[in-house]
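Annotators were shown the component list below and the corresponding predicted structure, then asked to write short factual statements about the assembly.
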Amino acid sequence: MKVVFNDQVLDFDAPTSAFDIAKKLKIDSIALACKIDGEAFSLNHTVDRDCTFEVVTFADELGKRVYRSTAGFVLAQAIKNVYPTAEHAVGGTDGDGFFYDFDFRIPIAQTDFEKIETEMKAIIKANLPIEEVVGTRKAAEKFVAKSKMPYKAEHLAALKGDTVTAYKTADFYDTSEYPLLRSTGKLKAVKLMSLTGAYWLGNEKNKMLTRIYGTAFEKKSDLDSYLKGVEDAKSRDHNKIGRDLGLFMTDENIGQGLPLFMPNGARVLQLMQRFVEDEEQKRGYLLTKTPIMSKNNLFITSGHWDHYKDKMFYMGDEDMDDEVLALRPMTCPFQFTIYKNGLKSYRDLPVRYSETATLFRKEASGEMHGLSRIRQFTLSDGHIVCMPEQLEEEFAGAVDLIKYFMHVFGIEDDVTYRFSRWDEKNAKKYVGTKRDWTRAENTMRKILDNLGIEYTEAVGEAAFYGPKLDVQGKNVHGKEETLFTVQIDFALATRFDMIYIDENGEKARPLIIHRSSIGCYERTLAMLIEKFGGAFPLWLAPEQVRVASLTDRTIEQVLEAKKQLLSLGIRAEADVRSEKLGKKIRDAQIAKVPYTLVIGDKEVETGTISVRHRTLGDLGKMTQHEFATMVQYEIASKEIKL
Ligand code: ZN
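Structure shown to annotators:
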C-alpha cells in the first residue's frame, strides 16, 4: 500500500501501525496521533490501505485534545482503582484542560486530589499501552450491560454510527471523543485543578454528578507557567475585583445570575447608560420603553416560542391557563409592535428604535459567572427598520456606533469580528428557507467586505432569524465572549406583517437590522473592570475625588470642599477619620479613587489643596478652583489615563 506524507510516498508490503509509519518518517518523537485521509486516529491504529498521512503534535489544537483526553482516561482509571464503587459517567476536553464526571456515592473534596494524583502517576509510570478496540455497536452495548455501567450505556446510545471505537489498558475500557496517545507513559505534566457539580447530560432533571477538572502539558515548565497564569487571571477576574470594590454582590436568597448592583456599581452603569442613550439620540435613534413581559402570543408570532422557549422564563401552563405570560428574552417583537402603530411611508424610513432593555434568559446554573453570564441583564438593544436600498448604509452606521463606543471605552484593540452563519444541517433551528439564508448571508458578506472588516466565519452561531456580525472579546481566563452584535433579518418583518408604502404607493416589505451598541451593560462592565483592574477612567469612576483631612482641625474645610465639588457635578467623598494620612492615601488607592485631596493647616492658611493622582502621584498644591477646572476638563474629554 502507498502512504502519502506531504510530497513523499512510502511503500509498505503489509498493514502497518501508524506509529511505525511515523517512525519511518523520523517524527515518532513528536507525534501524538495522526490523521489518515483527514480523519484523526491513535498511533496504535493499523493502516491497511492507500492513504494520505498527517502527523498531529502538541502544537496543534487537536494534539492538545488528544493529550488531555488521555489524561482524562488515566484519571478515570485512577478513580476506578482508588474508589472501586464510583460509577464512571463521561469525560471530555474543555479550553486548556480536560474533565471527567463521576458518581462517587460518597463525599469527595479537593483534599482527595493528592491520592488520586499519586495513583495517576503510578499508571503513567507503568507506561501501559493504550490499545484501540473497534467493535460493533451491538458488541459494545452487550459489554456495557454485562459490566453494569448505566451511564456508559446511556452515553453509548447517544453516539452515532454502527461501529464504536474504544480504548483499553489491561482491563480498563473507555470511549473518547478524540484519539488517545499510544501509552500512558507519554503523559508528562498532569495536574488536577478543581471539582464541581454537573448534572448528568447537562439536564437539571438528572442526577448531580461530580466533575473533576484537570490539565496536562508536555513539559513541566509549560504547566508551571500555565498555573501561574491561572492564579494571575483569578486576581484580575471581574467577579473578584467587582466584589472587592463593592460594585456588586449576590445573595443566595435572591439566586444565581441575579447580581445586586451596590451604589458604586449602579453609578458606573448609570454613567454608561446616559452616555450611550445621548449618543444614540445624536445619531437619530428614537427611544422606546416597553414591558419586560408579554403574553406568549407575541413570542409565538416572533418564533421565540418555537425556537427559544427552553431559554425563557414564563408563568402559567399553556394547556391549563388562558393566559401565559413570559419574561422577554429580546426586545424585537415589542419594537415591531410600535412600528406597526400607524402606517409608515418610504419617507419615514429608516426608523431607528433604541431601548435600554431589561431581558431574561434561563442560563443553566453551571454556566453563570459574575456579570458576564446572568439571568437578568440589560441590553443596549435596538432595531432599524429600513428599505432594502438603505440596508448597507444602516448596517455601516450600526457598526460605526459600536466602533465609536469601543474607542471611547478603550477596548477597540481588544476585540475580533465574527461572521456568525446558520447551520444548514440543522435547518429546523432557524426560521426561513435556504434561499432566504443564502440571500441574507451573501448580502452580509458583501457589506462586511465593503466595510473592510476582517472577520472569521462561524457556522451555527447565527440567531434563529438571521446572520450576525459578532464583536468578540476575551475575558481574563482567555474565554471568548460576544460583546456586541449587528444582525440582518429577512424573516421577522414577514412574520409580523410589517410594511411601508413605497414611492409608487404600493405596499412593500422593509428589512430589519437588530443591533446592540454597547451590548449587554453587565457584560461590558465586566470587561471594563478586567481591562482597568477596577481603576476606571475618571469620567466613569464612581468616586472621582476623595478629600482627606490631615488633622481634626481641618474637618470643616474638608466637608466644605466635598460639598463644593459635588455641587459642580464632581463625585467626591470625604475621609475625616482620625487616621494617619498614609493610611487614608492607601485606602483611597485600594478603592481606585483617581484623585485624593489633602487639607491640613498649611492648605487652610494659603487657601489651597494638595492634589495626588492615583498613578501619577503628587501633583502639588493648587486652588480648589484650579483643581475643579482641571478635573472637569478631564471628565469631559473621557480621557483614559492609565
Ligand atoms: Zn432583536
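Statements collected:
1. The longest helix spans residues 61-82.
2. The CA atoms of residues 431 and 465 lie 6 Å apart.
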